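To close the section, here is one more complete example, presented without commentary so you can practise reading it yourself. The ligand is S-adenosyl-L-homocysteine.
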Amino acid sequence: MSSIYQFTLKQLENELLQLHQKPFRAKQIYEWLYEKNVYDFNQMTNIAKALRETLAATFSTDLLSIEDKQVSTDGTIKYLLKLDDGGLIETVLMIHPYGRSLCVTSQLGCNMGCRFCASGLLKKQRNLASHELMRQVLTVAQDTGERISHVVIMGTGEPFDNYDEVMNFVHTINEPKGLAIGARHITVSTCGLVEGIRRLEDESLQINLAISLHASNDEVRNELMPINKAYPMDRLREAMAHYIKATNRRVTLEYILLKDVNDDVKYARQLAHYLRGLNAYVNLIPYNAVNELGYSKTSDEKIQQFKDELLRLHINCTLRKEHGSDIDGACGQLRAKRSGGEGR
Ligand code: SAH
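Output:
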């Protein structure tokens, strides 16, 4: 049975037209699902019984099942969720002063092969459908009883390798009659698939774009992120410049500091040079060590030096606060452990 959470409001209106129903029914259904958190057609009392029965026979309202849950001392909750086909994914809830942010998974496994990342320990089995992204949000909201105010598409997977489903999800959570998560509260993070950046330009959406850079030159980036061979840094820079100009939005560059790999201050200088003239800011990320992969975290002192050098060169930058470092560290680790970590 197909999931009711796969539809944007417009798409649901069309579905209802096919069932010979007026489009306003779609808004009513949206209100029940996304405002009133009622996930059972039978309880949608302003909808006629016959239609409720048809809906229940046509669409599933199932959320995802919670297989495991780890709660950190800082309030972060890491969920291991099970998809209908048995696939396991991670979803992480982070508590911030400004709200509750959910980090969602976009693919079952990942093929980008970044050397430092636990997600790539399991190769991509398939893309997630938009309703599977939506059900991550609803499952966690229901479990905690609190509204999710921010969504970051930064879990396992490369969102631009699953562009259509991810964008369908973005439009659905952004819908004012639905969850109404503001575009500026939604972030999509990519390893730098240039076509995806181009496509995002045309969406006329104000969501945040984050790009995983992690290096200041092609030599180091080729080593860390094989995708750089397909989209080297000059092409990536061109795509960013184009995006910034077309959308008038700033982009975020993520830079994980890896001990003795990319953390020397000379790389901060190179990075500043690369970013000169771009409306971008750098988010420095302390590495969450993954045992099997052989990289380690840069010392706090060196991180500070790197940051100071960027600031000295007038590059905006912030240091990402670590969340849930006491609960199975890096993204993808919980899942890799459960699934036996095969397929590397
Ligand atoms: N494929 C997308 C989104 C998923 S990864 C992308 O590459 O952006 C989300 C972010 O987490 C990326 O910046 C990624 O490089 C980073 N990341 C992966 N493993 C990490 C680890 N062990 N410690 C810290 N950040 C990590």
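Once you have examined the tokens, check your reading against these statements. Residues 112, 114, 116-118, 154, 158, 189-191, 212, 254, 256, 285, 287-288, 290, 330-331 surround S-adenosyl-L-homocysteine (CB under 6 Å). The first helix runs from residue 9 to 18.
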